Amino acid sequence: MGVITDTSWMIGGPQGSGVDSSATLFARSMAVAGYWVYGKREYHSNIKGAHSYFHLRVKTTPVRSHIDPIHLLSTFEDSTAEIHAHEIVAGGALIYDPSVTKPETLEMDASVKLFPIEFETIIRDLAEELGKPAAKLAIVKNTIAVAASLALYGVGLDVLEEALKGLFRGKKAGLVGVNLAAGKKAYQVIQSVEGWDTFAYRLAPQTNKPEPNSRLLMNGAAACGIGKLKAGCRFQTYYSITPAVDECIWLEQQTEYGIVVYQAEDEIASINMANGAAYTGARTSTATSGPGFCLKAEGIGWAGMNEVPTVITNYQRGGPSTGLPTRNEQGDLLFALNIGHGDFPRIVVASGDMEECFEDGFNAFNFAERYQTPTILLIDKALANSTQTIPKFAEKHLRIDRGQIVGAPESFNPEDPATGLPKFNRFKVTESGISPRSLPGTPGRIHFLTGDEHTEYGVITEKPEIRIAMMDKRDRKLHTAAREIPQDLQFKLYGPEQADITIVGWGSSKGIIIDALDELKAQGVTANYLHIRLMSPFPAEKVAEILTNAKKTMIIESNFSNQLAKVIKMETGITIPHHVAKYTGRPISQCEAVSAVQEVLTKNSRKVMLSCGH
Amino acid sequence: MATKQQQLPTLATKVKPFQLKSEKPIDWCPGCGDFGIVNAVQQAVSELGLVPWKVNFFTGIGCSGKSSQYLQAYGVHTLHGRVLPYALGSKIVNPDNVVLAAGGDGDGYGIGGGHFLHAGRRNVDITYIVFNNEVYGLTKGQASPTLEVGMQPKSLALPHISQSINPLALAIAAGYTFVARSYSFDAKHLKQTIMAAIEHRGISLVDVHQPCPTYNDLHPKEYYSEKVIENGTEMPRVYYLDDTDYNGVVADSTDAEAVNAKKIEAIERAYKREERIALGVYWKIDMPTYEDRLQSVIPALQGTSPITIPFHDEDMIPTTDLSYAYEEFLV
């Protein structure tokens, strides 16, 4: 009887058929059982019908990436088996509905174990027992597919019950009973198949079980949203776009916190409303994805020119144009670093995992307000839509930094309105480049804002000497930021200091490469990972130092042209000689990362192109 | 939902209009209609006794866009066509400020047309003044969306072959709750109209006819002051709705049928074909504002506003308790 500590499970089906809820139930169950889970969601730009799937990995230790082979494929309709059966490993298993799937017609390893489940029969029996019409119970198909999987993995029914209770709360609590009853029947069916308990990928029981409710099962969009809430974000604007809309809708549901989420008429309105609100003094952000980000360019430039602390979250998806609307890509880095015409400072941060999504969502407002400049967060779709079990976020170290905000001057006398009228040099030229800011409504601090070049008081000017002073002043803020932002928020080297190869990456590559380091080590390769998080101001000096001291360097990115490699070249003059790129819109797997490193080491390949995943 | 009374931040001692002039020298052409509008804004703010530092004046781009530099208040010169998003964002997070927005006809009805339309639906409590001179002056006189088909001001190479929009009818249809027209050199009427717009609780549009002495030779100041023959009688070009039997004010906003009938009447009035120009309030209705509706769906905002809800203590430690947000994710 095989027992393993790391398994890969998939469920698929037409969009709108409950694939997501099945995956959530499965992930929750595994989390309740004490395991660690990482799941990636793949879907088409379609409401109903197109094939979508959820690929989950379950481990006894924390997990941050997926692997390509499938150990157990769970299906309740015909398309998923046809598309994915060939990915099931030898000795793996297929759960299927014999009325729609004929295993003999599938391209599949002969050793795959078959577990037919007559979904319709189970539902009909259940309907009779409960005295309900069968049509109303069709949705429990998802629970049956999940319960059957849990049975095979050796996870108890009590776990399913607990997970169902967690999922169906409040008004939905009534749904626990029927789903549990369906689940029981699924367990019975599986346990009636000969050899069910010798499934090669049966999971080892979790011995080191985390405390119940000590962890979160969360995706990157919500993690960033939670960070924004903690930061005191009170206004978030958006225009409906995949995948940014997930964060916005989640935030809108958090009515306890008094945050206003505003669905604007377009992307241009949403950035400019955000600028208006941020200038007024509310912590404000807007969220978007590629096409919408393009439309925000002029507004971001305005915020740069007027030193307004607007936060922009850009959820990266496949580009250019509408591109791959629901798929992953790290294709907006160069654009984010250059968005808007002319030169102005901007802070650009790329989050690498759920914890970084949370922290960056929080810190973005501190950066924006301290340096009074637009702050762009880049989050990959692969993080936004992936589900992961993580420890609860650390919050104790967090502090709010609102930068320099001034109130009424001492000369203001409420009895004499004239004392409230003097102008204020909002754009005072300072050594740090940062000028004290007053919020509208403050007496004695009246000033102007304008996208035109302006004086210290915000008055339009075209005088060359003021132009020079102001451009220099704004630019100095970036140098101040580079000095002040803590190094561990800028970049981090994971793994041993000295290694055979140093892998460079950013964004969602982080989890994949960190998971890959262990596997490489087992294969006798010492590798370390340089994760870059702060893209502007870029930590050029330190990055150059690490790269110069590295034995061999390579870069892994999910984009066509290896954009980070270009940034590194531009900022440090260093050429990273080995490029690994993936631009199919599917996230890189741990397996792909490992084999890419091996290929670079053994064949010295200059360019490795990855393409795994449907 | 019941409508509330307007509460404006006012001073015990009003500031004088001259105190509201900024030091920035005005660089409009001599005879420009913009002067009249900026003067009227200064007078309206003075006469209403508004607290100047609580007045936030947002403007678009173009000649009119510079207006925010000429009022001694918090002034924001935004982007071309984007004045309304800025004004709305600002007012929603801090409803205690008085938010004024202004821009040209090209800025508001052209490049900002989408925002103009959708601002009506929201009914955020702001006042929007449009400088309507039928041309894009700062780029040397191209046709704006209000230039009628067939017209050819001297700066156009060919007669204009696109139809014009009717901003008043458009605003009424879009949901603006106060829609008025005035004229830049009718100082008294313009000042009073702007005051009424500020006092109105909800989104107000004041469309102001103005000459562009440099590029619109079809409608100079003389055009507005000349007499026209109506029914065989010589009459002034510009007249007031208040002197007619038309009344655009909705008496009871809860009577849906009456509101609808009045709306149709107002749009019809806005489309009236005549040689003369009628100034005044075409449409006014008291409705719950966006801020009111926000409070009805987000209880945490009741009696407060987004900008005033605290999120840190004196030591800058964040005070937001995430347990409510965490609940759905705990495993």
CATH topology title of the largest domain in chain A: Pyruvate-ferredoxin Oxidoreductase, domain 3
Low-confidence stretches of chain A: none
- Kindly report the oligomeric state of this protein: heterodimer
**CATH homologous superfamily caption of the largest domain in chain A:** Pyruvate-ferredoxin oxidoreductase, PFOR, domain III
Task: Tell me the structural class of chain A.
Answer: alpha/beta
Intertermini distance of chain B: 41 Å
What's the CATH class label of chain B? Alpha Beta
C-alpha termini separation of chain A: 31 Å
Give the % helix of chain B. Answer: 25-40%
- Order of helices and strands of chain B, N to C? HEEHEHHEEEHEHEHEEEHEHH
The count of DSSP E runs of length 2 or more, i.e. the number of strands of chain B, is 12
Structural class by secondary-structure content of chain B: alpha/beta
Main sheet record of chain A: 8 strands, mixed
Strand arrangement within the widest β-sheet of chain B reads 2-1-3-4-8-7-12-11
Q: Please give the domain count of chain A.
A: 4
CATH superfamily of chain B: Thiamin diphosphate (ThDP)-binding fold, Pyr/PP domains
Q: What does the main sheet of chain B amount to? A: 8 strands, mixed
- At CATH's second level, what is the architecture of chain B? 3-Layer(aba) Sandwich
Structure overview:
The complex is a heterodimer of chains A (614) and B (331). Chain A is of the alpha/beta class. Chain A folds into four domains: 6-213, Pyruvate-ferredoxin Oxidoreductase, domain 3 (3-Layer(aba) Sandwich); 217-391, Rossmann fold, CATH 3.40.50; 417-484, no CATH class; 491-610, Rossmann fold. Chain A has an eight-stranded mixed beta sheet. In chain A, strands 8, 9, 10, 11, 12, 13, 14 and 20 form an eight-stranded mixed beta sheet that branches. Chain A is globular. Chain A starts with 5 loop residues before the first strand and ends with a strand. Chain B has 331 residues and is α/β, with parallel strands linked by helices. Chain B has one domain: Thiamin diphosphate (ThDP)-binding fold, Pyr/PP domains (Rossmann fold, 3-Layer(aba) Sandwich). Chain B contains ten helices and twelve strands. Chain B starts with 33 loop residues before the first helix and ends in a 5-residue tail after the last helix. At the A-B interface, helix 1, strand 7, helix 7, helix 9 and helix 11 of A face strand 2, helix 2, helix 4 and helix 10 of B. Strand 16 of chain A pairs parallel with strand 2 (74-77) of chain B.
